[in-house]
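Researcher: Here's the sequence for the chain we discussed earlier.
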Amino acid sequence: MYNSYIDHTLLGATAKISDIKKLCDEAKQYSFKAVCVNPCYVRLAKEQLKGSNVLVATVVGFPLGANTFEMKKAEALDAIKNGADEIDMVVNVGMVKDHNWEYVRRDIEKVHNACKMNILFGKKTLKVILETCYLTKEEIEEVCKIASEVGADFVKTSTGFGTGGAKVEDVKLMKESISPSMEVKASGGIRDLATLKAMVEAGATRIGCSSSVKIMEELGEEK
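Model: Thanks. This is the structure I predict for it:
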């Protein structure tokens, strides 16, 4: 069951072609929901996963969220053209801290339009990364509200490159702050089965982690 929650993730700077191939093989072996790779590996991952049900996710504006609107939109369109099924975009954290909510809305809208209004490639899933380690409760609530109004599919806790990762209390707050049609992805620091279960119990329906195989081995030992 838990395998279907997992985005098997490899976003490290030193990831090689062989590492991406291994990631995809593991994703097929355990029937994970998706792999999450850097944009340069989207096409490779798509080829490696051909014939499977595993989706390809990639990141936009990663990891700082400080790219311009148009750059993020272009990144998303390029990734979709290369075969991405899902886009995990980072909001502009500085603009969130400035409470420049109109900017934040436009930022999400640009990528949303790339994901949802591309006639050639169809609609793609959009996840909005908040980087919760830097945000107050009120800021988390406001970004969730904006993402809901724009029409994103998920809000996501973290990039894994900030000062902290997913927390149960943040997942609960995000779940309470989004529309009923939206979902929460917890990512960052989820390295064991107990933590994964806690995130799911808090309301996460997708888990981003690089320790996915270890977690599946733990699950096997538990049975």
